[in-house]
């Protein structure tokens, strides 16, 4: 069964304290792995798509990496405005639908 | 990217009634999807809505409960029928216009059933 697991469920950081979020997955065939940011009361905001092991993508203080079993979202020197829920999803090779993990709620304190 | 507008943004409905949610996209897209996000949970796919064909429903979701229309390449509706409090969720429309490399979401419809 295709499955996505994110950890930790919640993470509290001080401003400037770098850390990583984990997304582990088991899929029958991976088309792509997606990262989203979701603010309260809003729809998910697209961040990255990764396709193959070893691939990395960056956007401001965020960098996403991918291995054959997991993905990491690294947050460097976070700011309070980075506080949000970060969602990971896999797109199965046989379709275009997304299977989401349960998310990591990130709180960055000033 | 795509601009996706959902209506209504929120609603409070009586049990036993139905609500139709609209999703309008600012460009033509082949693939549209409807997701549900229950309180404190992540997103679960309800169905895939492609123009010119019937919607494809995921396990646990049926057409009688969640009928979907897709009359053209920029518009879709999802109806939540015969609602119960368990249907209280955020319903999200999503489009994929890049053959799987990006998927964008609307702002969601927050539904409360009383």
Structure notes:
The complex is a heterodimer of chains A (110) and B (114). Chain A has strands spanning 3-7, 10-14, 19-26, 30-38, 45-50, 56-59, 62-66, 70-75, 84-92, 98-100, 104-109. With 110 residues, chain A is mainly β. Chain A has a single domain, classed as Immunoglobulins (Immunoglobulin-like, Sandwich). In chain A, the strands form two sheets. In chain A, strands 2, 4, 5, 9, 10 and 11 form a six-stranded mixed sheet that branches. A five-stranded antiparallel sheet of chain A has the order 1-3-8-7-6, with no helix packed on it. In chain A, a hairpin with a 2-residue loop joins β6 (56-59) and β7 (62-66). Chain B is an all-beta fold and 114 residues long. Chain B has a single domain (4-104), classed as Immunoglobulin-like, CATH 2.60.40. Chain B is 0% helix and 51% strand. Chain B contains no helices and eleven strands. In chain B, the strands form two sheets. In chain B, strands 2, 4, 5, 6, 9, 10 and 11 form a seven-stranded mixed sheet that branches. The radius of gyration of chain B is 13 Å and the shape is globular. The model of chain B has no long low-confidence stretch (mean pLDDT 92).
């Amino acid at each position: 069964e295709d499955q996505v697991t994110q950890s930790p469920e919640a993470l509290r950081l001080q401003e400037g304290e770098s850390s990583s979020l984990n997304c582990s997955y088991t899929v029958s065939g991976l088309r792509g792995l997606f990262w989203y940011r979701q603010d309260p009361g809003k729809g998910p905001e697209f961040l990255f798509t990764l396709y193959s092991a070893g691939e990395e993508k960056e956007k401001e203080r965020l960098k996403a990496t991918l291995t054959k079993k997991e993905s990491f979202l690294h947050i460097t020197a976070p700011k309070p405005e980075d506080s949000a829920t970060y969602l990971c999803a896999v797109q199965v090779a046989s379709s275009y639908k997304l299977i989401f993990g349960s998310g990591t709620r990130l709180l960055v304190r000033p | 990217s795509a601009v996706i507008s959902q209506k209504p943004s929120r609603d409070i409905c009586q049990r036993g009634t139905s609500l139709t949610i609209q999703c309008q996209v600012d460009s033509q897209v082949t693939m549209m999807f409807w997701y549900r996000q229950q309180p404190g949970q992540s997103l679960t796919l309800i169905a895939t809505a492609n123009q010119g064909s019937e919607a494809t429903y995921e396990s646990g979701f049926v057409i009688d409960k969640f009928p979907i229309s897709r009359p053209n390449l920029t518009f879709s509706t999802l109806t939540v029928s015969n609602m119960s409090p368990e249907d209280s969720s955020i319903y999200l429309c999503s489009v994929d216009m890049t053959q799987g490399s990006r998927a964008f979401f609307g702002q969601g419809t927050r539904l409360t059933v009383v």
